[in-house]
Amino acid sequence: MRDPSLPLQDALIRALRAEGVLPIVGKRVYDQVQSAPTYPYVSLGDGQVLPDKAECIDGVEVSLQIDVWSRGVGYVEAKQIAPRSSRRSTISR
Predict the structure, then answer these.
(1) Quick one: which of 79, 61, 59, 62 has its CA closest to 70?
(2) Taking the CA atoms of the chain, what radius of gyration do you get in angstroms?
(3) Residue 79, number of CB atoms within 10 A of its CB
(4) Measuring CA to CA, how many Å separate 86 from each of 22, 23, 57, 67, 80?
(5) Calpha distance 45→54 (Å, rounded)
(6) How far, CA to CA in Å, does 22 sit from each of 15, 25, 45, 46, 60?
(7) 32, 39, 44, 58: least buried by Cβ within 10 Å?
(8) DSSP character string of the chain
(9) Of 42-46, 74-78, 79-83, 84-88, which range is least confident?
(10) What's the CA angle centered on 50, arms 44 and 51, to 5 degrees?
């Protein structure tokens, strides 16, 4: 079985990089962070794929971790970015 989190990860990165979604971050959304990133940025952490089976379908529930990285003092900058980056998505096969 193909890992269902891969298309979701790709769609999530494209959605977060879209113009105007995260204006403070811009295109700095990574699944693998470069060695000397420009702050602030968003990265994808671990994910989880759980079976979600019913009598007539075989489904999965996919969760992906979104991390916000900032060098701003305190949490203000990260808290401005975080609500825009956390969205619940549902995909079905």
Answers:
(1) 79
(2) 15
(3) 12
(4) 11, 15, 28, 10, 12
(5) 29
(6) 10, 5, 18, 21, 28
(7) 32
(8) ---THHHHHHHHHHHHHSTTTSTTTTT-EESS--SSPPSSEEEEEEEEEEEEE-SS-EEEEEEEEEEEE--SSTTHHHHHHHHHH--------
(9) 84-88
(10) 145
Tokens of 18: 């879209």
Q: Which residues lie below 8 Å from residue 60, measured CB to CB, with a gap of 6+? A: 4, 49, 50, 51, 52
pLDDT surpasses 90 at 89: no
pTM of this prediction? 0.78
- Return the sign of the alpha-carbon dihedral for residues 69, 75, 78, 84: positive
